Amino acid sequence: MKGERRILESDWTASREETAGCLGVEKLSFSYGKRAVLDKVSFQARTGCICTLLGANGAGKSTLLKCINGLLAPKDGRVRWRGMDTSELPMGRRAAIYGYVPQDMGRGSALGVMETVLSGRLPHMGFRPSEEDLEKTEEILKELGLADLAFRRMADLSGGERQRVLIGRALAQDPEVLLLDEPTSSLDLRYQYAVMELLRQLARKKGLVVVAVLHDLNLALDFADQAVLLAGGKAVADGTVEEVLVPDRIREAYEMEAEIGIFGKRRVVLPVI
Prior knowledge:
The protein has helices spanning 61-69, 91-97, 113-118, 131-143, 159-172, 189-206, 217-223, 241-244, 247-254; strands at 22-32, 35-46, 50-54, 76-81, 84-85, 98-101, 177-181, 209-213, 226-231, 234-239, 258-263, 266-271. It is α/β, with parallel strands linked by helices.
């Protein structure tokens, strides 16, 4: 398809200098027992950018995130950060590279906001929090607008507030790559856009690689720099969001018809009903 960019095997001959600020997923495969979920998935994501993983339910998006950060062990393939195969690193070193934000898990937590963010310092912490750990936690609370909620329980927060806390916990690790599994799920429209704007600012300001699983294609169009579209366990398209989200690819991945509307400077996915 015109304008489409795919990752080819030859792309992986790039030198370390060319991939210095790049997260590289190389021919990653994973199976749950005999059920293949990922089949030789490859893509690269760069610092300062938001890369979104798109695809229908069951396409392997969440599994791919867990393979990247080492929660799951791929059957084949590698994940590289700054030229290193991170699967060979000890858990503590991986935790200093990858900050992981799962789907909202703070709903029933008895922990407070400060305790939750501080727990992100565990990869750097000794037997007890140091002054540096506490200062880092306070800094993140202020940066994410959570200082007034520091002593509130996670269970008492709104969905948008909890999501900011979970992002704060990941940031407390001082990660270089931020991985998020459906960061806007269960949020109303206002908080969906607030969380995505926060992620964009973090990517730009801190020079992070941000990889996020999203279901809302229009949020991806509004905020992401890159999209990887999964279908049948494969990456069927990879490029800018505008390159990837075209009617033919949407039909292939979601088995439905869609049109792309133009409203001012914005592109919008419009399902054909």
